[in-house]
Amino acid sequence: ALERTFSIIKPDATERNLTGAVNAVIEAAGLRIVAQKRIRMTRQQAETFYAVHKERPFFGELVDFMISAPVVVQVLEGENAIAKYREVMGATNPANAAEGTIRKQFAKSVGENSVHGSDAAETAAVEIAQFFSGNEIVG
Ligand code: CMP
After folding, report:
1. Whole-angstrom Cα distance, residue 34 to residue 135?
2. Which residues form the Nucleoside diphosphate kinase-like domain (predicted)?
3. pTM above the 0.95 mark?
4. Residue 38, annotated ligand binder?
Protein backbone atom coordinates (compact mmCIF):
# COMPACT_ATOMS: atom_id res chain seq x y z
CA ALA A 1 0.00 0.00 0.00
CA LEU A 2 1.04 3.60 -0.46
CA GLU A 3 2.35 4.72 2.95
CA ARG A 4 3.99 7.66 4.65
CA THR A 5 6.77 7.36 7.18
CA PHE A 6 8.57 9.84 9.39
CA SER A 7 12.32 10.33 9.05
CA ILE A 8 14.93 12.33 10.95
CA ILE A 9 18.39 13.09 9.60
CA LYS A 10 20.20 13.28 12.93
CA PRO A 11 22.84 15.72 14.26
CA ASP A 12 25.84 13.51 13.42
CA ALA A 13 24.76 13.60 9.76
CA THR A 14 23.76 17.28 9.49
CA GLU A 15 27.03 18.29 11.18
CA ARG A 16 29.03 16.43 8.53
CA ASN A 17 26.95 18.07 5.76
CA LEU A 18 25.43 14.74 4.72
CA THR A 19 21.80 15.85 4.25
CA GLY A 20 22.01 15.62 0.48
CA ALA A 21 23.92 12.33 0.57
CA VAL A 22 21.24 10.78 2.80
CA ASN A 23 18.47 12.20 0.61
CA ALA A 24 20.13 10.70 -2.47
CA VAL A 25 19.94 7.22 -0.90
CA ILE A 26 16.30 7.81 0.07
CA GLU A 27 15.32 8.93 -3.43
CA ALA A 28 17.33 6.19 -5.16
CA ALA A 29 15.26 3.68 -3.16
CA GLY A 30 12.09 5.09 -4.70
CA LEU A 31 10.91 6.99 -1.64
CA ARG A 32 9.56 10.50 -2.25
CA ILE A 33 10.34 13.34 0.18
CA VAL A 34 6.89 14.97 0.50
CA ALA A 35 7.79 17.23 3.45
CA GLN A 36 11.10 18.37 4.88
CA LYS A 37 12.43 21.01 7.27
CA ARG A 38 15.63 21.72 9.13
CA ILE A 39 15.01 22.49 12.79
CA ARG A 40 16.79 22.60 16.07
CA MET A 41 14.83 20.25 18.31
CA THR A 42 13.99 21.53 21.76
CA ARG A 43 14.63 19.31 24.77
CA GLN A 44 10.86 19.10 25.25
CA GLN A 45 10.33 17.93 21.66
CA ALA A 46 13.10 15.32 21.94
CA GLU A 47 11.79 14.00 25.27
CA THR A 48 8.26 13.73 23.85
CA PHE A 49 9.48 12.08 20.66
CA TYR A 50 11.51 9.44 22.52
CA ALA A 51 9.10 9.03 25.47
CA VAL A 52 8.91 5.24 24.87
CA HIS A 53 12.62 5.04 25.72
CA LYS A 54 12.33 7.09 28.93
CA GLU A 55 13.38 4.20 31.20
CA ARG A 56 16.34 3.15 29.05
CA PRO A 57 19.83 3.86 30.39
CA PHE A 58 20.70 5.79 27.21
CA PHE A 59 17.67 8.14 27.32
CA GLY A 60 19.54 11.17 28.65
CA GLU A 61 22.39 10.71 26.21
CA LEU A 62 19.88 10.25 23.36
CA VAL A 63 18.03 13.48 24.15
CA ASP A 64 21.28 15.45 24.58
CA PHE A 65 22.48 14.16 21.22
CA MET A 66 19.26 15.01 19.38
CA ILE A 67 19.39 18.64 20.53
CA SER A 68 23.16 19.05 20.01
CA ALA A 69 22.88 20.31 16.42
CA PRO A 70 20.18 20.80 13.78
CA VAL A 71 18.17 17.88 12.47
CA VAL A 72 16.15 17.50 9.27
CA VAL A 73 12.66 16.10 9.81
CA GLN A 74 10.94 14.56 6.81
CA VAL A 75 7.88 12.73 5.59
CA LEU A 76 8.66 10.01 3.05
CA GLU A 77 6.00 8.52 0.81
CA GLY A 78 6.01 5.34 -1.25
CA GLU A 79 4.86 1.75 -1.59
CA ASN A 80 5.44 0.09 1.81
CA ALA A 81 7.38 3.19 2.83
CA ILE A 82 7.67 2.19 6.50
CA ALA A 83 9.36 -1.18 5.95
CA LYS A 84 11.23 0.05 2.89
CA TYR A 85 12.81 2.94 4.77
CA ARG A 86 13.86 0.66 7.62
CA GLU A 87 15.58 -1.52 5.03
CA VAL A 88 17.28 1.52 3.47
CA MET A 89 18.44 2.77 6.91
CA GLY A 90 19.95 -0.57 7.94
CA ALA A 91 20.31 -1.96 11.46
CA THR A 92 20.24 0.46 14.43
CA ASN A 93 23.85 -0.44 15.21
CA PRO A 94 25.93 0.41 12.12
CA ALA A 95 28.22 -2.53 12.96
CA ASN A 96 25.28 -4.78 12.01
CA ALA A 97 24.01 -2.73 9.06
CA ALA A 98 24.00 -4.23 5.56
CA GLU A 99 26.19 -2.93 2.73
CA GLY A 100 24.69 0.06 0.92
CA THR A 101 22.41 1.11 3.77
CA ILE A 102 22.49 4.67 5.15
CA ARG A 103 23.80 3.56 8.54
CA LYS A 104 26.49 1.33 7.02
CA GLN A 105 27.69 4.24 4.89
CA PHE A 106 27.36 7.11 7.34
CA ALA A 107 26.55 6.18 10.96
CA LYS A 108 29.22 6.62 13.64
CA SER A 109 27.78 4.42 16.41
CA VAL A 110 24.53 2.93 17.79
CA GLY A 111 23.73 6.32 19.34
CA GLU A 112 24.99 8.57 16.56
CA ASN A 113 23.35 6.55 13.83
CA SER A 114 22.51 9.27 11.28
CA VAL A 115 18.79 8.59 10.77
CA HIS A 116 15.53 7.65 12.41
CA GLY A 117 12.56 5.98 10.71
CA SER A 118 9.14 5.04 12.09
CA ASP A 119 8.72 1.38 13.06
CA ALA A 120 4.98 0.97 12.32
CA ALA A 121 1.97 2.72 10.77
CA GLU A 122 0.60 3.92 14.12
CA THR A 123 3.92 5.42 15.25
CA ALA A 124 4.43 6.98 11.80
CA ALA A 125 1.15 8.87 12.12
CA VAL A 126 1.98 10.08 15.65
CA GLU A 127 5.53 11.10 14.72
CA ILE A 128 4.48 12.93 11.54
CA ALA A 129 1.81 14.84 13.49
CA GLN A 130 4.37 15.92 16.11
CA PHE A 131 6.38 17.86 13.53
CA PHE A 132 4.15 18.62 10.52
CA SER A 133 0.74 20.11 9.93
CA GLY A 134 -1.30 18.71 7.05
CA ASN A 135 -0.65 21.64 4.71
CA GLU A 136 3.12 21.19 5.04
CA ILE A 137 2.93 17.74 3.44
CA VAL A 138 2.73 17.99 -0.33
CA GLY A 139 2.40 14.61 -2.03
P1 CMP B 1 16.12 5.57 16.78
O2 CMP B 1 15.59 4.72 15.67
O3 CMP B 1 16.09 7.03 16.55
O4 CMP B 1 15.29 5.23 18.09
C5 CMP B 1 15.86 5.13 19.38
C6 CMP B 1 17.29 5.48 19.37
O7 CMP B 1 17.98 5.18 20.54
C8 CMP B 1 17.99 4.69 18.31
O9 CMP B 1 17.63 5.16 17.04
C10 CMP B 1 19.44 4.86 18.69
O11 CMP B 1 20.04 5.98 18.07
C12 CMP B 1 19.35 5.09 20.18
N13 CMP B 1 19.96 3.98 20.88
C14 CMP B 1 19.59 2.70 20.82
N15 CMP B 1 20.42 1.95 21.60
C16 CMP B 1 21.32 2.81 22.12
C17 CMP B 1 22.43 2.66 22.99
N18 CMP B 1 22.77 1.46 23.47
N19 CMP B 1 23.13 3.76 23.32
C20 CMP B 1 22.78 4.97 22.84
N21 CMP B 1 21.73 5.17 22.00
C22 CMP B 1 21.03 4.10 21.66
Report:
1. 11
2. 2-139
3. yes
4. no
92 marked among binding-site residues = yes
pLDDT in tens, 32-49: 999 999 999 999 999 999
Give the pLDDT of residue 70: 98
CA distances from 21 to 4, 18, 25, 63 (A): 21, 5, 7, 24
- The alpha carbon of 111 and the centre of ligand 1 are apart by a number of angstroms equal to 5
| Maximum pairwise Cα distance, the chain | 39
Tell me the ipTM for this assembly: 0.94
Phi, psi of 44 (to 5 degrees): -60, -45
Q: Is 116 strand, coil or helix?
A: strand
Q: Known catalytic residue: 116?
A: yes
**97-104 long-range contacts, CB within 8 A, separation 24+:** 102/22, 102/25, 102/26
Give the per-residue SS3 of 70-110. Answer: CEEEEEEEEECHHHHHHHHHCCCCHHHCCCCCHHHHHCCCC
What is the Cα Rg of the chain in Å? Answer: 14
The active-site residue out of 102, 116, 128, 132 is 116
